[in-house]
Write a structure and sequence with these properties.
binds shikimate-3-phosphate, UDP-n-acetylglucosamine1-carboxyvinyl-transferase, Chain, 5-stranded mixed β-sheet, 444 residues, 4-stranded mixed β-sheet
Length: 444
């Protein structure tokens, strides 16, 4: 690998991928563990926490708000230790704005954390985060009694002014978004009465699984979640399993690299997160999971994936998108190598991720010589079996970690190197991505 002025040359893998690997802690669960520990009374013990830029944004935020964080780096690269929360005393007014960096989860979840307190906090973020829509969270929280300034602001920077007399709400969310659901539920934890969120299809349910560990009465059914407000949150122990969204990149690499057969261990097998396995299977890949054990109430186990020499296109229906929302770029690359057309239904939400991932996937695949297009909110990819990247190909991550890994993958499984601009964006979720994938290479 040769890195020069924010471009990284990704050389093809020198052999097939074999053996086992552990992926780092789940990003969504790590954010929640850090934020919920900060809200609780006492010291929560955490292990397996992802050490990445995004999670560090949440850690810094809770420190600014008065939580005491004593997390240390472990030999496996994870963070472990204690967080002593503000509990019934509430968060303190920070000494300046909270910079959420690139992390939408930090910004949106914090709005819910802060809503039930008489406190004014300015939230901001990097250029990408400052473009992302926030009204989806400020609207329901405003109905509960929180206020946001400047009035009507739909993007960061904005100031949250919470209130001790927050009203519980029944919120029918127009989008399947775990960030929206979680922000409303966290606000509901500090409101009198029952707060309930319904969504069009079930988004990831880590919040509903974790809140009861902290003593919050929570009920959840497919597409509906509710919390009983005003129960004090108490410290507990949280063990974070491996991130299926990181595992997905290794799984896609194995599916594409001839001769590969890998196992990814200790991965969250939460059904709301492993839609990518089903899609790989539908494309003809031998992908399975086993050894399911439970850490807290999150299921985890081993994912096994083998190379597939007969990939074919498939259709991913709208109601499955939430279970693989972050995996669409990587799966699009697999689809680009498959026979026939793959369609991802109703993926308009991808336009407002860290970048416009629809535009980026269509443009990037176009440079690979693959035809991809949108029809309404459906993404179509016409695969090209035997696809090889053109020599000297340059692709940009646009500062988006999932695109950085997708474009790196294009080069890793090809016969020519690709140059990825801004590959460093991987540090948002998977700083060790290249090291992990290269650790699986069996040289001939
Ligand atoms: C996340 C929810 C999803 C996902 C994001 C993490 C979370 O976003 O894309 O990477 O931790 O709740 P949306 O809630 O916008 O769908």
């Amino acid at each position: 690998m040769d890195t020069q002025a924010r471009t990284t040359i990704i050389e093809p893998l020198e052999g097939c991928l074999t053996g086992s690997v552990h992926v780092p802690g789940d990003k969504s669960i790590s954010h929640r563990a850090v934020l919920f520990a900060a809200m609780a009374e006492g010291t929560t013990r955490l292990s397996g926490v992802l050490d990445s830029d995004d999670v560090r944004s949440s850690v810094r935020a809770v420190q600014q708000l008065g939580a005491r964080v004593a997390l240390e780096k472990m030999a496996d690269g994870s963070l472990a230790g204690g967080i002593t929360g503000w509990g019934a005393q509430g968060p303190r007014t920070p000494d300046g704005p909270i910079d959420c960096g690139n992390s939408g989860t930090t910004a949106r979840l914090l709005m819910g954390v802060l809503a039930p307190w008489d406190i004014e906090v300015e939230l901001t973020g990097d250029e990408s985060l400052r473009r992302r829509p926030m009204a989806r969270v400020t609207a329901p929280l405003s109905r509960m009694g929180a206020r946001f300034f400047p009035e009507g602001a739909a993007t960061l920077p904005l100031t949250v002014r919470g209130t001790r007399s927050l009203r519980a709400a029944k919120y029918d969310s127009p989008i399947a978004s775990a960030q929206v659901k979680t922000a409303v539920l966290l606000a509901g934890v500090g409101a009198e009465g029952t707060t309930c969120v319904t969504e069009p299809s079930p988004s990831r349910n880590h919040t509903e699984l974790m809140l009861p560990l902290f003593g919050v009465p929570t009920t959840a059914a497919s597409g509906v979640a509710q919390v009983c407000g005003s129960a004090p949150m108490h410290a507990c122990e949280v063990e974070v399993p491996g991130d299926p969204s990181s595992a997905a990149f290794l799984a896609c690499a194995a599916a594409l690299k001839p001769g590969s057969a890998i196992q990814i261990e200790g991965v969250s097998l939460n059904p709301a997160r492993i839609g990518f396995l089903r899609t790989l299977e539908q494309m003809g890949v031998d992908a399975s999971r086993r050894g399911v054990s439970s850490s807290g109430k999150e299921l985890s186990g081993i994912v096994s994936v083998r190379y597939c020499d007969d990939l074919h296109g498939c259709e991913v229906p709208a109601e499955k998108i939430a279970s693989l929302v972050d995996e669409v770029p990587a799966l699009s690359l697999v689809a680009a190598h498959a026979r026939g057309i793959t369609v991802f239904r109703e993926v308009g939400e991808l336009r407002v991720k860290e970048t416009d991932r629809i535009a980026a996937v269509i443009d990037g695949l176009g440079l690979l010589g693959v035809n991809a297009w949108m029809d309404g909110n459906d993404l179509y990819i016409e695969g090209n079996p035997g696809l090889q990247v053109p020599e000297g190909l340059r692709l940009s991550s646009g500062g988006d970690h999932r695109l950085a890994m997708t474009w790196a993958l294009a080069g890793l499984v090809s016969e020519s190197a690709v140059v990825v601009e801004d590959f460093e964006a991987v540090s948002a979720s998977y700083p060790g991505f290249l090291g992990d994938i290269r650790s699986l290479v069996r040289r001939a």
